[in-house]
Structure formats: structure tokens, C-alpha cells
Amino acid sequence: MTTTAIEKTGGRTVPQRDPGAEHGPRRRSGRLRALGLPYLLLLPALVLEILVHLVPMLIGTVMSFKELTQFFIRDWRTAPWAGLDNYAVSVDFDAPVGEALLKSFLTTCLFTLLSVGLCWLIGTAAAVFMQETFRGRGLLRTLFLVPYALPVYAAVITWAFMFQRDNGLINHVLHDQLGLTDSPPFWLIGENSFITLLVVSVWKGWPFAFLIMMAGLQNIPREIYEAAALDGAGVWQQIRRITLPSLRPVNQVLVLVLFLWTFNDFNTPFVLFGRAAPESADLISLHIYQSSFQTWNFGTGSAMSVLLLLFLLVVTGLYLTLTSRGRKSADA
Fold first, then answer.
1. What is the pTM of this model?
2. Between β-strands 12-17 and 4-9, what pairing exists: parallel, antiparallel or unpaired?
3. Mean pLDDT of the chain
């Protein structure tokens, strides 16, 4: 309904329209467009997320309930229904399949714990050190980020050549130059393969921790350190009392991201060892690949993948719950 006002001009009366009534529909339509714009901008990412992640995840879940072997690869939908048999085989730790999966899971847990811890420790130490002003700091920062900028395949292949027993650089330095070993050790097979995998993972992972910690340290005012130094606090006291508490929100996100990346890492062991990793470096991602594409038992491999997804979801949920409670208690 349009409201009007009467204005007397001379001897005439001139009706006037209410400006709010005229621009009301325009304002409402503009408000609706403003509300719909964020969803419109997120639509391409949402479509890609559905096609790349959610649809394959649902298909893999359906495959885990089927007896899908090489005889049904042409049309996996015709594979007979297996129910929970694939899951029962995967978690039967007394049987060969379940026992191998459990060993791979424990190896992955140990590898993830060491890799994430070392990446966080080296990255944090380097970031704290880089806060000091000295000549060549910019060049050193750039060099620190080189492992993170290199393609994974190029970096891991280079490390594989360096860890060769007879003509690799590692044995040339350790055995030929320094004489630390009686004979050139094998790094890509046997028990030493776990050390090799850990070294490569830490080398390519700690620059990311360094980059995130550097960004977090930029938000801590320098006046706090100056005041602490005037009060007699040393370097370690400043790190323990100021740096680490201030970086708690950054550390919570960083540790979670490093954990998920490392636990799911497939490229590093696959490029480093090939399709069959040594038992000491048999990560669960590569183990599931072998169970699926070498034995052609895609049903069991899909069940293992679903179990891995559930484990990561539970760990992530518990981690977020505990860290949120710790943050609330610290704020209180």
C-alpha cells in the first residue's frame, strides 16, 4: 500500500509519494541478492566437493558390502552382496588379513607420532629463531621453504636415489667419508626403511609447520617480550610463558592438519618403495592399496578404507572436543 502526503504550494495541493514505500521492494531484493551471493560463490567448490569426495566415498562404502573381486570389475554392481563379511575379515586379528592390517595400523601410528612431533619441533624452533633480525634472514627463510615448494614426486625420487646402497649419497658420506658403518647399509629394504621413510616425511613436512608458526608469531606484540626481558625473563622463559601460550590456537590447527596428512600419506611410501613396501614401513594407506589392487579384492580393501575413515573421524572429533574444552578453561 502506497502512502502519500499532501503539500500545499500556493493555492494548490501536490500529492507526494513516500520514499520508503518506493524503495522498499528494491531494498528487499537487494538484501536477498546479498544473502544469496555467498552461497553462489561457494557453489563451484560445493559441486567439486560432492563429485570428487562425497560420491566416491559413497560408492566405496557400497563396495565394502559386496564380494567384489577381479571377476566383477567390469560391472561392480553385479557383485554378490557380502554384508559385514569384509569388515569381519579386516578386524579378525587372528587371521592373516586382520593381523597384517593391525601391524600396518600400529606402524602408521608410530610413524605419524614421530613425524608430526619432529615436524612441529623443527618448524617451531626455526620460526622462533627467524624472529631475530640478522643479515641473510630473508634468504634463509626462502631456503627453508624449498622442500615444501618442491613437487612430492620429484623430491621423493631424489631421496630414493640418495638412499641407494651402492651409489647413493647417504652411504657415500656415512660409510666412505666418515666411516661410521662397517658396510654400506640397506636403506630401502629391511628395518632401516622405517628410518628412511621418517627422514623423507620430516624433510618435506617441517617447512609447512615453519610457515604456519611464522604467521602465528607475527601476531605476538614485541612489547610483551621487551617487558618480559626487563623483568629478567630469559629466552626459555619467554618461549614457555609467552610464545607457546600465544600460539596455542595455531598449534591446535597445525597438529590436526599434520596428523591427517601424515596418517593418510600415500605418495611418499609409494614413490620411495614402490607397490610393495617393506614390513617395517608398511603404512596403512599403501597396505589398503596393496589389498585392493594387487590381490584384486576390492571389497575387503573398501572395508579397510571405511574403517580408516571412521578411525580418523573419531580421533578428529575427540581432538576438537578436548582442545575446545582446553581453550574455554584457559579463557576462563
1. 0.81
2. antiparallel
3. 85
